[in-house]
Design goal:
Number of helices: 15
Structural class: alpha+beta
Radius of gyration: 36 Å
Distance between the termini: 10 Å
Shape: elongated
Number of strands: 27
Strand content: 25-35%
Number of domains: 3
Largest sheet: 15 strands, mixed
């Protein structure tokens, strides 16, 4: 006969709690954060003018769907993302801020993009397709009549066809990428200004990156000159013309010279051209300008100098045709860094010119005037004079970037919006109310049913296996484990910052996280214990580390980094009181109500204080204590606000499960307040119902899938249970 399953031990309850939380994280948290949150972005108008949705732009955060338009000569508007990446817009640019799946869409103009090494994804859209950039990439994207760009460092993938362009290269959404040089990128003052700001922000200096490349990647802007050597000189046909050609072209003994220059329009890349002198058979010369094509190794040109007839009769009739074409291949062979520019200093040139018959004469009297010739020379050219550098794009008093370093450097915790910045509009209040109602209804019943299935299945598995019991740790050991766990949790929390590493600022961030966790966990446990002594006197409630919560904390940090969420998700309840199962449901419910009230009050109070302290810290960027205070309040806010939607899910084994078992109405009210606070503080909401599209729609779909899935799992479980009750002999023994 089958034995009934044994009652779950406290240890099993803790494991079951972890399984329940993991299930809801997989099913719901990913959808919630990925689909409602956004990469936090800060706008700075460095030069020129800008508008956001038609209104004059002020420095500060921008939200998904907002349209930034830039005007003014030498304008530069900078968007700094939470992961340390930058998007900078030039005059004429129009850019719509994106959601968690994209930084935004460039509708017109030029945008410079610097992707941080810590970035986990960087996408910019256009009307022709998307550009995905790898970490550490810097590239310009321009949209005029069509869209294209240039990769200065790193690698991008372009369009639906997945065209890959590796630096240095230009790209479009059709066709293969083409090589780029310093001239085609940094002859533009806008590109130079962006490279300088990138270097100030900690990105590799462009000159260091380009200085390691082949000479062909250098700047050819300037005047080159050198001796030439004849390789080929032949002329056939009309003797008089051949004699003139030998005297003026073949026997030329002067030096060969070329002047290279760059023309930059409103879009990148720039075009490289060359100027050179043409000597005609009558001894005169003239200067022409010809565009160059670059293949990554050499510059090439082909110029149709002249075409004419062999014979012209008095009646105007012409006989025979010839063309004179000049071609050149110029290969940079040496380059060096001069005055911050990667300059080509030596070029091997091969120049060919020829007269070729394209249409023979038909009149016998003209055949004597037919001729063809070919001339080929090589020259070793040296740089005589470099072209002057581009004029400064930005005025000297533009706000610097990346100047704050040391322990006072702001982390991602400083990216929390203040209450003044996050005040919802009337439409957004409606969105919040709708989202809260939907989530509460979804989680109140389907989520509860799913948790019952998880709990029941786990209890059965636990009852079938004999587990070795380990002695309960002593008070001293428990305190050591608690302290160790809090330090580990602080390190995990500090990893939210993309710039986290072995430096003073990261150490200060770990200390900030540790203090915030001690305050949140310690005071929260004290409040619950005080209430517990009133409703369940005499029951011991030791404070114990929740090791499974460290996993939840790590999942939130990883999700925040992957989705570029700023400041991110911090699950604060990494430790809690061990409450015996023997405590009545009413007492447990009241204790959980006290825990929820504490989290709500701490979250709201710390956020209000952050709104006062954060501006003061920004005004004193080198003040370590001010930055510590601001980010401590930010951490407390995020821990409290992030914990509410997770810890108070209506799952058995969670705080929310105890509260729901006590009173459904109280749980619904508490959870609604917690969700509303989460949405207001940490989620960048769309401006209206009409803007609920894209990822927001996917969020609603995910909620629907979770609801259907939870009900489906419960129905399958219920059907299985009914079968077992109808055929009890089929139930295997648990011995």
């Amino acid at each position: 006969m089958a034995r009934p399953p044994s009652l779950p031990s406290r240890r099993h309850a803790l494991v079951r709690r972890g399984i329940a939380v993991a299930a809801i994280l997989i099913a719901g948290l990913g959808a919630l954060t990925a689909c409602t949150a956004t990469p936090n972005a800060t706008l700075r108008v460095l030069a020129g003018d800008a508008t956001v949705d038609g209104a004059d732009a002020d420095d500060g955060p921008v939200r998904p769907g907002e349209v930034i338009a830039v005007t003014g000569t030498a304008a530069l508007v900078e968007i700094e993302w939470a992961d340390g990446s930058f998007t900078r817009l030039a005059d004429g640019a129009r850019f719509t801020v994106g959601d968690a799946g994209s930084r935004g869409t460039l509708e017109a103009g030029t945008a410079w993009n610097a992707v941080a090494a810590a970035s986990t994804g960087y996408r910019v859209g256009t009307a022709e397709g998307d550009v995905d950039a790898r970490p550490g990439t810097s590239f310009a994207l321009s949209c005029d009549q069509s869209c294209g760009g240039v990769v200065a460092d790193g690698r991008v993938t372009v369009g639906e066809d997945g065209i890959t362009a590796a630096a240095p290269a230009t790209f479009r959404f059709t066709g293969e990428p083409e090589p780029a040089s310093w001239s085609s990128v940094f002859s533009d003052p806008f590109a130079v200004a962006n490279a300088e700001r990138d270097a100030d922000a900690g990105f590799p200096a462009a000159i260091d990156v380009w200085g390691e490349r082949e000479p062909a990647a250098g700047s050819v802007d300037g005047f080159f000159e050198g001796p030439g050597e004849q390789l080929e000189a032949q002329c056939t046909g009309w003797a008089d013309e051949c004699a003139r050609t030998r005297a003026t072209v073949f026997d030329y003994s002067g030096t060969t010279d070329f002047t290279f220059a760059t023309t930059c329009a409103d879009v990148l890349p720039c075009d490289v051209v060359t100027e050179f002198s043409i000597i005609t058979t009558d001894g005169s010369s003239r200067v022409v300008e010809v565009p160059l094509e670059f293949d990554g190794t050499s510059y090439r040109m082909s110029y149709l100098n002249r075409e004419s007839s062999y014979c012209v009769f008095p009646d105007g009739r012409e006989e025979g045709r010839w063309t004179n074409v000049i071609t050149a291949v110029m290969t940079p062979t040496a380059a060096e860094i001069r005055d911050g520019v990667f300059v080509v200093t030596e070029i091997d040139a091969e120049v060919a010119s020829s007269v070729v018959m394209v249409e023979p004469t038909t009149d016998p009297s003209c055949r004597q005037f037919e001729y063809e010739w070919a001339n080929r020379r090589v020259a070793a050219l040296s740089l005589v004079e470099s072209a002057p550098p581009p004029e400064d794009y930005l005025p000297s008093d533009v706000e610097p970037v990346g100047t704050i370093d040391g322990p006072a450097r702001p982390s991602t915790l400083s990216g929390l919006r203040t209450p003044a910045e996050a005040i919802p509009t009337a439409d957004q209040l409606g969105l919040i109310a709708g989202a809260v109602v939907v989530l509460v209804l979804v989680l109140a019943y389907p989520g509860y049913l799913l948790s019952r299935v998880i709990a029941d299945r786990y209890d059965r598995v636990a009852a079938r296996w004999t587990r070795a019991r380990t002695p309960r740790p002593s008070g001293v050991l428990r305190r050591i484990l608690l302290g160790t766990g809090l330090v580990v949790a602080a390190i995990i929390t500090a990893a939210l910052d993309p710039a986290f590493g072995a430096d003073a600022a990261s150490l200060r961030l770990v200390l900030t996280a540790l203090v915030s966790l001690v305050i949140f966990v310690g005071l929260g446990a004290l409040v619950v214990r005080l209430v517990g002594r009133r409703v369940a006197p005499g029951v011991a409630m030791p404070l114990q580390l929740r090791w499974g919560s460290l996993v939840i904390l790590a999942v939130g940090v990883v999700a925040s980094r992957l989705l570029h969420l700023n400041p991110g998700i911090i699950f604060g309840l990494v430790a809690g009181l061990v409450i015996a199962d023997s405590i009545p449901r009413q007492a447990r419910g009241r204790m959980m109500l006290a825990s929820a009230a504490f989290a709500i009050l701490v979250g709201a109070g710390a956020w209000a204080a952050f709104g006062i302290v954060a501006p003061a810290a920004d005004a004193a960027p080198d003040d370590v204590l001010a930055r510590f205070a601001a980010e401590l309040l930010s951490a407390l806010t995020i821990e409290a606000v992030s914990t509410l939607p997770l810890a108070f899910l209506p799952f058995l084994g969670l705080d929310g499960g105890d509260l729901r078992s006590w009173r459904l109405g109280v749980w619904a009210a508490v959870y609604a307040v917690g969700l509303a606070l989460f949405l207001v503080v940490l989620v960048a909401l769309p401006g209206s119902w009409a803007e609920i599209q894209g990822d927001a729609i996917r969020w609603l779909v995910a909620i629907g899938i979770f609801t259907v899935g939870a009900l489906g799992v419960w129905l399958v479980h219920r059907r299985s249970e009914n079968r077992k009750r109808a055929n009890p002999d089929a139930v295997p023994p648990t011995d």
